Amino acid sequence: MIENFASYCTLGTYYSTYVAENVLLALCESERTEEILKLLEIIDIKDLSSVESVAMVFQALGRLLLEPVAEKFLFHLKNSGNLILIFFHLG
User: Fold this and answer.
1) Are 61 and 32 in contact, with CB atoms under 8 Å apart?
2) pTM for the complete prediction?
3) Distance (Å, rounded) from C-alpha 17 to C-alpha 70?
């Protein structure tokens, strides 16, 4: 099921990005590790609509003991310049 959804997410439309983000957040709440990882391969974390969404993803990665994945996304955010905005908002 997640594979079919993942191909839909690659359409790149606003609606597909919005739906993908909401599915990702629901997966984070349900702690479905395998599906979260598959979706994170497709979704660009910089495209999440809010700092709260990014924080929710990082919280789930921490709960699921996926620090290497979290570190990869922190590096990606840092290189994009978005990391400062997130820490400012969360601080």
Assistant:
1) no
2) 0.75
3) 20
